[in-house]
Amino acid sequence: MGLFSNWDLKPRDYDKMVDQNLPNAEKVLNESQYDTKLGLNMARDARKVINGCMKIDDFHKVHSSSLTMEFGSYYASDTPDTKKTNKGPKWVMVIDLQKCVGCDTCTVSCKAENRTPPGISYNVVMESMEGEFPNIKAVNLPRPCMQCDKPACAQVCPSRATYKMENGIVVIDNDRCIGCRYCIVACPYGARSFDFGDSYEQEMTGYNDVTSPEYGVERSERKKGKTPIGTVRKCSFCFHRLQRGEEPACVETCIGDARFFGDFNDPNSVVSKLAASPRAFRLKEELGTQPSVIYLR
User: Fold this and answer.
1) Model confidence over 197-231: pLDDT tens digits?
2) Who's near 22: CB < 8 A, 6+ residues apart?
3) Could you tell me the pTM of the whole model?
4) Distance of CA 164 to CAs 52, 57, 239, 273, Å?
């Protein structure tokens, strides 16, 4: 098998891999009890706001009345705070695609750490065969949540359950999430999942007895009708581990040492130096979401 360097792949090639793995937006929203058309339109316009093609005031003028009718008292009409801040650390992850071997250890360790139910993986590794025989190469693209500085998911959330913390991590208040799934279709990276309540209990005795904390909140026993079932879930950079001074599980267990994690506000940090590399890029940079996950090609 012939080989070629990842330098031969452009950022747009990786963008296409993401696009090929996005969920079907209409199918996702049709499974929700809320208005599918409104969710699709809001996702479209949220991206316009983020890339500067639409004013936030115009966004609210277009959608506020529909949101009030659809969500009633659940609708929080205040504008989400997605502004940057220099207070404290700004957590960033750098992934070196030259070092990623496609072993899926990040996926497995994330699932074990966060005890996610069937069908939900916060970390996935997308795979593609590039080139023409005999010069072909298996390309791996790990994809956690991008933790965007300007998250489209926060823009469309009617209950403001999704918001960005000062450290840059985009979080979900599962107690406020109403499960409309608008954020799932607004995310241009496919990094969000709906918790239908599925369980490994039949395969693994005691699975429901212990759960991983969602953004530092202990949930104890998992059972139907109890949060986070019926809400949206995603990667949080293992926020509960950060609170203990530890790295995210995917970073700690990466056997290729392809992942780096640290404070972007610290000019001497490894992630700050790697982000300045000519190899560095972000997925779908043209959208203006400003992801906190940076790749080295």
Assistant:
1) 999 988 888 888 888 888 878 888 888 889 999 99
2) 188, 190
3) 0.92
4) 19, 20, 13, 24
